[in-house]
Amino acid sequence: MNNDSDRIIALAGNPNSGKSTVFNAVTGLRQHTGNWAGKTVSVVRGRRTYNKKDYTFVDLPGCYSLSSHSAEEAAAREFICSGSADTVIVVCDATCLERSLNLALQIIESAERVIVCVNLMDEAHKKGITINLATLSDRLGVPVVGTSARSKKGLSQLLDLLEQPEQVTAKRSEHIDSASSFIKTAERISKECVTVTNDGYKNSDIRADRIITGKRTAFPIMLLTLFGVFWLTITGANYPSELIAGGLFWIEDRLLDFFIWVNCPAIVYEVLVLGVYRVLAWVVSVMLPPMAIFFPLFTLLEDIGFLPRVAFNLDKCFKKCSACGKQALTMCMGFGCNAAGIIGCRIINSPRERLIAIITNNFVPCNGRFAPPHQKQQSYLPELTKAKQMPSLS
Amino acid sequence: MDMIRRLSELRQGERAVVIDVGGDMRDRLQDMGLIEGTEVACVQISPLGDPSAYLIRGAVIALREEDSCLVKCSAEDQEKGVMV
Fold first, then answer.
1. pTM confidence score
2. Residues B61, B62, B67, B68: what is their CA dihedral angle, to the nearest 10 degrees?
3. B30–A contact, CB cutoff 8 A
4. Alpha-carbon torsion (A102, A145, A122, B83), positive or negative
5. Interchain contact, A183 vs B35, CB within 8 Å
6. Which of A107, A231, A271, B56 has CA atoms 20 to 30 A from the CA of A124?
7. How do residues A219-243 score in pLDDT, each as one tens digit?
8. Residue in A117, A115, A23 with CA at minimum distance from that of residue A61
9. d(CA B23, CA B8)
């Protein structure tokens, strides 16, 4: 996919620092980005030509350090230390710079050429956090650029920095190779560069968390939300489902008329129209509308941070079953599509808990297996009602 | 007054300074910045009592009791508290 002449740019960073958003914004390749840790497991590549130079961007798995305690960290470490990348861009989370700096310092230590990209500047600004990028660049000894990848701010500066071949000054004297010294250096640097006007963890955040994870309020809120999402999905999906079914089956009749008109042998048109086309039409009209409603709702809940709190609330129940609270998320995802739910299981750290989540996800009925829209459809095809259960695609 | 307690004993709103991190989670916690001398605050306890969420170096991280009871810390600044 990439030519030898391309310059290889690796993107590294903490989980959830917006690394994949930076990657998407730079390469234009649509890759799913989400709100919880561990989205990128295998290495994703994308290309970009900027000012007549070709770059291959590599999106490394998110990690907190290079100490290879997990498969993701080992993969990132291997890529960075092998020197396969011409430049490593370390994506830092401006709202929580200190933790990001720990990784940045480790990468500066082991990679040839590093650019630090402080992402989520808009988010930090909202939280009253100001970062002195010039001081940060001076202390780290590498170029630093501030970005807000979601609104595409600062990305051209980032690309401009890639062009300048040797602007990197090796001022890496003081860092020593020990985990706690990286953390201490990160602490010192972040104290010098970050000014917080109000506490990072804001009052309104706390109040919302109090309610969402409160003793009395947590469970009613979760049940109501789950009920609300299902009600919207099932009720909402019926109308487009009817429309699509009506349209597609009208086309079926026309197709049938056409085949009869051209004197096509019955065996051919029965296979094509009554077999292939009808099943396809059925599946599309039953599955498409609920998915088109469920997944955006799910994404919304994920974006506002509701789902991680659900995992937090329910972890004890899942722990009783030797599973992980994050399984609540993959199970909810399973209501949309089991395939997506199983892929989402990568967010679970412990291999055993992950395996449990993968195996049991199958027992969550995906919306292709929801009863109500399904029964509705049967009224359109009375002759098929004997086949009670349609094969589910998910 | 230096009283040694487990991180899991912190009540909501209390803060403490880490003295020692033990257990299987040691490396992982270290990567997230939980080392000797780090200030932590317990910001939220799950409605069922476990896990709890801690504010560690500007990030909120949830830990199960089985892991947080292996972190020793000295209780201090109880009156000051975080703004919770």
1. 0.74
2. 80
3. yes
4. positive
5. yes
6. A107
7. 999 999 989 998 998 888 888 989 9
8. A23
9. 14
